[in-house]
Amino acid sequence: MALGGRLDRAQRRHRSLGFVIAVLYKFSDDQGGYLAALITFYAFLSLFPLLLLLTTGLGFVLHGHHHLQEQVVSSALGQFPIIGDQLRSDVQALKGSGTAVAIGVIGAVFGSLGVARAIGNALDTVWAVPRRSRPNPFFARLRSLSLIGLLGLGVLLTTVLATVTTGASAFGRLAVGLQVLVVIAAMLGNAGLILVAFKVLTARSVRVMEILPGAVFAAAGWQAVQTLGGYYIAHQLRGSTQVYGLFGLVLGLMTWLYFLAVMVVIAMEINAVWVGRLFPRALLTPFIDHVDLTDSDRRAYTSYAQAEQFKSFQRVDVTFGEQPTPAAPDPADAPQPSGSDAPPPSGSDAPHLSGSKDSSAPPPGHSSTG
Q1: pLDDT, position 364
Q2: Can you say whether the dihedral through the CA atoms of 128, 132, 137, 143 is positive or negative?
Q3: Could you give the residue ranges of the DSSP H alpha helices within the chain?
Q4: Listed residue (314, 368, 366, 369) closest to 131, CA to CA
Q5: Distance (Å, rounded) from C-alpha 108 to C-alpha 48?
């Protein structure tokens, strides 16, 4: 406990360390892993209809221009370095048809709405938006249609950047510098798209500067996951997708999407912790009750309770009593002296212990709803 106390005081003094710990604690409090898993499920559900819609749409728009069609598809699938090659080999066989377009549109709309609702739910949870203030299911789905436009902008951006990267070799010595600029441009473009999603898909009114740090982190995390995924597939998983077939495709795709979803949820937590000044937190808060809560802990726990307000006429009050203290040791458990030093077992000279507590007093942490 002494070591824990020293570590707690150290992280409270250093703002950067305290901020990182507060983000991780809030990620745990909000069950960020489950929020990321929900986003992953709907992203997986919407990916194949989106690819079907993309390829069949290109079959009509770019009819007779197979080179351009393949370049667009390859640039979109290049966002998935672990399973992009196998997806590309499966998708290239698709041709433009009215039935495929209809199925792709229905599946893409359904899946994209699911992704948007999952992201919106995660944002409202992270921002501790009261349930009464969250949009109804119909309005939420109408607002989520904007995500399809963001996906279209993302595909257009990656297509342009992939075209520039492909032609970078023609610039000789400037090729490396041009590729670095392309990576920076991709990060800025992704940050802009994430910024719009963070602002549009939440019921909370937020300013651009409040959500900018998380958007930049999510864009950098996206690029890092891409780079690490490409390195891992090049050095560790070469040929494994051909060996494991469909199992490797599904497992790799789900893992890839989950890592990206975790990055997005952590980015949300960064914004919420920074704006709400929810740092530093008590180091042992997630593990025990006998801790000295900080003001940030109190604000965080208050927001969690107030977020459960379902109706406008419902009242949620949160109060904190005295910090819990360890129970006094039982005198019977103490070692008894022997010989002449032993006190008399009873009588007026015997020590008297009394400790009573008013049973009507409220518990240390009290919340009431009405």
Answers
A1: 44
A2: negative
A3: 2-13, 15-29, 32-61, 66-77, 84-91, 98-126, 137-144, 146-166, 175-200, 208-235, 240-276, 295-306
A4: 314
A5: 8
